[in-house]
């Protein structure tokens, strides 16, 4: 997300097909909420910034989360089986950069800051717009990614504040508007 790939490049540096380039360009124009997916357990503690998350159903509450299989954290999420989706507010752009690997801050240090609640079995961002803790119930591999179906056991929302979204290969802050006040 942060280290955006230009449509004409792949992570390996080889050229992509015109269809892949067109798809990537189209997806760059799809605004998406910015999230940090976290886990902790016998296989380690880690987190990653991502935007490929959406609701599946409310009975039982389930989210769909896409994680690149080439990510070093992919197998940790899978093996631990428990995750927290932390939906970021506008003030969390720097944090999103850290968890996207765009800074030199080591993973272990990212969790030492006093912004995390470590009383649960997974790290929960204290002031996230939404935190959703759950268990990975199913994984479906598709192309370069795994689609994780996460059944939620705990959901917390925070009222007010801006939302952090990713659009056209850049972060943007989205203001909430009151009904009847949209321009």
Automatic annotation (TrEMBL):
InterPro entries: Flavin_Rdtase-like_dom (IPR002563), NADH-dep_flavin_reductase (IPR050268), Split_barrel_FMN-bd (IPR012349). Keywords: Oxidoreductase. It comes from the Bacteria. One of its GO terms (molecular function) is FMN binding. Residues 27-173 form the Flavin reductase like domain. One of its GO terms (biological process) is pyrimidine nucleobase catabolic process. This is 4-hydroxyphenylacetate 3-monooxygenase reductase component. It comes from Streptomyces fuscichromogenes.
């Amino acid at each position: 997300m942060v280290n955006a790939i230009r449509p004409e490049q792949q992570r390996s540096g080889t050229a992509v097909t015109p269809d892949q380039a067109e798809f990537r360009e189209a997806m760059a124009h799809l605004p998406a909420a910015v999230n940090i997916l976290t886990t902790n357990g016998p296989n380690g503690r880690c987190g990653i910034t991502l935007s490929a998350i959406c609701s599946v159903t409310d009975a039982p509450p389930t989210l769909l989360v896409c994680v690149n299989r080439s990510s070093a954290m992919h197998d940790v999420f899978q093996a631990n089986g428990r995750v927290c989706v932390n939906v970021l507010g506008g003030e969390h752009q720097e944090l999103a950069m850290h968890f996207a690997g765009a800074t030199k801050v080591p993973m272990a240090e990212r969790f030492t800051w006093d912004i995390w609640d470590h009383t649960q079995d997974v790290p929960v961002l204290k002031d996230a717009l939404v935190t959703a803790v759950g268990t990975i119930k199913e994984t479906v591999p598709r192309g370069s990614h795994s689609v994780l179906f996460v059944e939620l056991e705990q959901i917390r929302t925070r009222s007010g504040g801006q939302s952090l979204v990713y659009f056209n290969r850049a972060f943007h802050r989205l203001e909430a508007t009151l009904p009847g006040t949209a321009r």
